[in-house]
Amino acid sequence: MKLYLNNTAAGLVPLYDDDYEQKRKLRLGKVYLAEIKLARNVQFHRKYFALIRCAWEYQNGEVQAFFKDNVNLFRKTVEVAAGICERVYNLSLKSWVDIPKSISFSSMSAEEFDEMYERIKDVLFSTFLRHISEEEFSKNLISF
Predict the structure, then answer these.
(1) Cα–chain-centroid distance for residue 49?
(2) Is the pTM value of this prediction over 0.85?
């Protein structure tokens, strides 16, 4: 069971209705073991995917066709270029290749995600958005 909790002076309080309902299932007087982690910001996670979609929209048809008109292939390529990857051996190619790491909430801390976001921005602006100012891009990012 995973719960989002807010730390208050009165103790840990369930954050959302679903969390409250989950907590109610715990029996009073029983001892439970909890692992406390700082929750990742869901809005920031969504902003990351908006960043990728916005950068994708700036790409011309030739670039989009290169990535098989698939924004997820574009995203994974950018992640590998930013070093957010691990090496695996591809038996077909008989070579080591880089594959993107998982960016799921359980696989990456908030601090790691923040660092990844900045590295992704660096790759986007140095490779795919060289002709766009960050100010212009930020204005358009808001609509995603």
Answers:
(1) 7
(2) no
